[in-house]
């Protein structure tokens, strides 16, 4: 039976989807009195009525916006637009939501004040979350969180940190825990009941996630935590604006009881669901109602009380049809559950009738879903266009400012020139001879400087050409070439035609890649990876596949980023020759190559790991060998030259942590161009 996943996603999925539906609620209505204007207070008060009186909410916020425009206050207009955007999010008016969020974000570029910019990032992050652009949503919400933290707005920080923790679920449990705990910290600082409830739900989500592999003790800890959360919600129900959060607390506590030791505490389970249902009906919260009815129905279905389950689902359908709007998703879900109950009761006539209704509402649900996807796509497109336009305007404004400065500079230079000309004309008779001597000496100095510069340029060019020739030689190690050709010859003599042809093709391709790339200033990361793969596969063939390799890129890395060519291969060669090759045959060799990117530092970080014999053992084997790796030395020289423009360029060779295994680690900081 697939009732639970369809009707109410449990654990992290439950809280995550509920979070997306309620994400607009993380904007707190309390602001620091000493920092909030009268206009902002009016907009905040209007926003607090978003659940109880929508008309008054919109009217007050529009009045606040009119006041901000009348005063021509950019900061107040940003905050008013942000509140209006979040109100439209509550009303599911996507077009107006996008318009107000974009307006707030555009104006935020014209101020350096913390609070308005924090509100603008908050509105934009909410919009990105609503249209399913999670990475962008996290980026804007993190920016808003940091700004509110600077302003010591703990109520805002608590709610934003809670929602950031939901966005990181389930991909990054560590960050989920981090931001859930930060939400609790800020909620305790703020002290208002709504922030505390929001933060406790986020941390409860983290505790619930752990129950997939947790023991009974952790289940009891989670139940105790949610009991305290429900107690807090009941005690402060009148001052909590987001009534849906109260219903969520009841739903999650009931869900924990259903997953607890058998037999479950039926009395507590049903009691919490009844309270959640009452909240849902009182405040017309569809997702709470759907989850409460669904949990009860599923429980009685599993218990074998089909009559009770059918009565619950039928009651849910009747209640939904009594409302002025139609929730096709909810109706399709309830009819699907009734089909399951009818099948278990072997009432095939009822099954047929329920199936007909299910097909009808499921089609309507699909049509609505398709329309929403298209609508979201349109908003994403329009939003991206507006953001690009904002960036273009910012660049144009910056250019205008630069042109003004340039104009002032030129005017100053002209003025100085006129003064100098007048002074020269006035004193030319007296200083004519001295001036002429000075010009001659200046000309001689200039010629000397030009000669020195030409000499330095020629020397630099010669050094560069020498470095390129040494680089090319280091990439095509004679031992490697002779071994490769020897292997090809051996395969041909043994009549292994296909492997020989494959080996020869790879060798020819690698040679061509090295020759071509050595003449380029930059290549893309994708080209570098292809060259590395070809080189490593040749080494695998040469060493009878005694080792394996892995090349992975972090999600932040773009493969078309430009880097200097042929920087990584020397370290792969060292890993094979000095790490894996001397390794005992019983251990399968492994080379791991990982790429991450620091956009702010314009750096690509390449981490190379091998499970070879390690630095100490390799040094012991080569104790009497005074040979210094030419390729490593050249790479060091190249990176040293790059440090003038990028101080982070360089590499570091380390012994692997014993807990991580035997071998060597190379951390290579490559500047992106």
What do you see in this structure?
The protein has a 5-stranded mixed beta sheet with strand order 2-4-5-7-6. The chain has a two-stranded antiparallel sheet with strand order 1-3. Residues 1-34 have low confidence and may be disordered. It is α+β, with helices and mostly antiparallel strands and 673 residues long. Helices cover 72% and strands 6% of the residues. It is flat. The relative contact order is 0.05. Helix 6 packs parallel to helix 18, helix 7 packs antiparallel against helix 8 (134-150) and helix 14 packs antiparallel against helix 15. Among the domains are: 36-151, Serine Threonine Protein Phosphatase 5, Tetratricopeptide repeat; 519-671, Heat Shock Protein 90, CATH 3.30.565. Strand 4 and strand 5 (603-610) form a beta hairpin.
Task: Provide a count of the helices.
Answer: 24
**What's the level 1 CATH class of the domain at 519-671?**
Alpha Beta
What is the fold named in CATH at topology level of the domain at 519-671? Heat Shock Protein 90
What would the average pLDDT be, to the nearest integer?
79
Percent in strands? 5-15%
The residue ranges in which pLDDT falls below 50 over 5 or more consecutive positions are 1-34
**If you compute it from the alpha carbons, what radius of gyration comes out, rounded to the nearest whole angstrom?**
35 Å
Shape: flat
GO molecular function: phosphorelay sensor kinase activity
Transmembrane segments: 405-426
Keywords: Kinase, Membrane, Signal, Transferase, Transmembrane, Transmembrane helix
Signal peptide: 1-33
């Amino acid at each position: 039976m697939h009732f639970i996943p369809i009707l109410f996603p449990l654990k992290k999925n439950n809280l995550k989807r509920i979070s997306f539906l309620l994400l607009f609620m993380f904007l707190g209505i309390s602001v620091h009195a000493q920092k909030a204007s009268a206009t902002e207070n009016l907009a905040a008060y209007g926003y607090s009525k978003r659940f109880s009186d929508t008309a008054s909410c919109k009217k007050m916020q529009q009045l606040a916006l009119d006041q901000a425009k009348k005063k021509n206050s950019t900061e107040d207009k940003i905050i008013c637009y942000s509140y209006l955007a979040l109100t439209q999010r509550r009303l599911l008016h996507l077009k107006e939501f996008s318009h107000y969020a974009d307006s707030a974000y555009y104006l935020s570029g014209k101020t350096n004040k913390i609070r308005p910019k924090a509100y603008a990032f908050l509105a934009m992050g909410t919009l990105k979350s609503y249209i399913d652009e999670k990475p962008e949503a996290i980026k804007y919400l993190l920016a808003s969180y940091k700004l509110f933290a600077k302003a010591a707005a703990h109520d805002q920080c608590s709610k934003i940190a809670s929602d950031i923790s939901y966005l990181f679920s389930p991909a990054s449990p560590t960050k989920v825990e981090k931001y859930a705990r930060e939400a609790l910290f800020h909620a305790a600082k703020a002290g208002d009941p709504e922030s505390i409830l929001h933060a406790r739900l986020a941390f409860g989500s983290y505790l619930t996630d752990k129950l997939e592999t947790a023991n009974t003790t952790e289940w009891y800890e989670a139940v105790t935590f949610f009991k305290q959360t429900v107690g807090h919600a009941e005690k402060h129900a009148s001052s909590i604006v987001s009534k849906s959060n109260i219903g969520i607390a009841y739903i999650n506590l009931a869900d924990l009881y259903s997953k607890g030791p058998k037999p479950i505490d039926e009395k507590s389970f049903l009691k919490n669901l009844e309270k959640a249902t009452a909240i849902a009906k009182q405040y017309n919260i569809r997702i709470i109602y759907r989850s409460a009815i669904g949990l009860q129905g599923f429980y009685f279905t599993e218990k074998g009380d089909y009559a009770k389950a059918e009565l619950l689902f039928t009651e849910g359908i009747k209640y939904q049809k009594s409302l002025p709007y139609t929730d096709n998703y909810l109706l399709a879900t309830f009819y699907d559950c009734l089909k399951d109950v009818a099948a278990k009761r072997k009432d095939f006539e009822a099954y047929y009738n329920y199936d007909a209704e299910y097909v009808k509402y499921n089609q309507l649900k699909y049509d609505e879903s398709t329309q929403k996807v298209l609508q979201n796509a349109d908003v994403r497109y329009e939003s991206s266009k507006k953001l690009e336009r904002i960036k273009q305007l910012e660049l144009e404004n910056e250019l205008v400012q630069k042109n003004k400065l340039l104009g002032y500079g030129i005017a100053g230079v002209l003025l100085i020139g006129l003064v100098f000309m007048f002074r020269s004309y006035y004193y030319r008779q007296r200083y004519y001879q001295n001036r002429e001597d000075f010009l001659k000496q200046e000309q001689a100095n200039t010629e000397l400087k030009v000669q020195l510069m030409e000499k330095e340029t020629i020397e630099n060019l010669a050094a560069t050409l020498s470095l390129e020739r040494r680089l090319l030689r280091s990439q095509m190690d004679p031992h490697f070439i002779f071994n490769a050709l020897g292997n090809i010859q051996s395969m041909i003599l043994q009549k292994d035609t296909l492997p020989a042809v494959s080996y020869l093709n790879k060798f020819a391709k690698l040679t061509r890649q090295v020759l071509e790339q050595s003449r380029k200033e930059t290549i893309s990361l994708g080209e570098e990876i292809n060259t590395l793969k070809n080189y490593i596969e040749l080494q695998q063939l040469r060493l009878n596949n005694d080792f394996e390799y892995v090349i992975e890129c972090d999600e932040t890395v773009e493969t078309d980023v430009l880097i200097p060519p042929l920087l990584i291969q020397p370290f792969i060669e060292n890993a094979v020759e000095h790490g894996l090759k001397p390794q005992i045959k019983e251990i399968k060799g492994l080379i791991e190559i990982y790429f991450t990117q620091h956009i702010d530092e314009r750096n690509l970080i390449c981490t190379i790991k091998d499970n070879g014999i390690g630095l100490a053992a390799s040094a012991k084997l080569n104790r009497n060998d005074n040979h210094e790796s030419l390729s490593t030395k050249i790479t060091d020289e190249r990176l040293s030259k790059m440090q003038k423009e990028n101080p982070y360029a360089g590499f570091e060779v380390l012994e692997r942590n014993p807990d991580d295994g035997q071998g060597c680690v190379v951390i290579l900081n490559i500047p992106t161009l």
